[in-house]
Specification:
By secondary structure, the chain is an alpha/beta fold. It has one domain (10-146): 3-Layer(aba) Sandwich (Collagenase (Catalytic Domain)), CATH 3.40.390. 47% of the residues lie in helices and 14% in strands. The protein has helices at residues 10-26, 40-51, 77-87, 91-106, 117-128, 135-138, and strands at residues 32-38, 59-63, 69-76, 145-146. Strand 2 (59-63) and strand 3 (69-76) form a beta hairpin. It is globular and about 35 Å long.
Length: 154
């Protein structure tokens, strides 16, 4: 198994930040977006606290009702690394896929109830950004969820 460079590398962090800005612009999503790369343990804690599910997940989105703040996205680095390895692409690519998915949720999309609208928008943006298969296509019942402030699911 090949060893990949860690995502904490400043060049990778800058590239991911630029990508997040591009995705946010493409979605015309106003306000600040905070992206947190965290552990599976922390994601499990978030998932348990806000969704009542005692398991880690790859990405969670937390929309904000505060003026000037679109919301927060949390990503499990460990799950992203496993997914990247299993799917044959690098870790930065997987994190971009997760950022894009989270941004779509912050923009109000919800693949569980929108009759394919989010999947179509995600596919269009993945093509634009030259990203491989996204979460919706690879897991029709993706554990990715949007959480409203106060713990209510969007």
């Amino acid at each position: 198994m090949s060893r990949r460079k860690p995502i904490s590398n400043s060049t990778s962090a800058q590239a991911l930040s630029r990508f997040a800005t591009q995705a946010q612009r493409a979605l015309a999503l106003g306000g600040d977006v905070n992206v947190s790369i965290t552990s599976s343990n922390q994601m499990r804690s978030f998932n348990r606290r806000f969704r009542g599910k005692d398991r880690a997940t790859d990405v969670l989105s937390f929309p904000s009702e505060a003026p000037g703040v679109a919301g927060d996205i949390a990503i499990s680095l460990e799950i992203a690394a496993r997914n990247a390895n299993a799917l044959g692409h690098d870790l930065a690519t997987e994190v971009k896929i997760l950022i894009l998915h989270g941004m779509l949720h912050l923009a109000g999309y919800d693949h569980e109830i929108d009759n394919g609208e989010m999947q179509e928008r995600e596919a269009t943006l993945r093509q634009r950004f030259k990203l491989p298969v996204g979460l919706i296509e690879r897991t029709p019942t993706s554990p990715t969820k949007t959480i409203k402030r106060g713990g209510r699911r969007a």
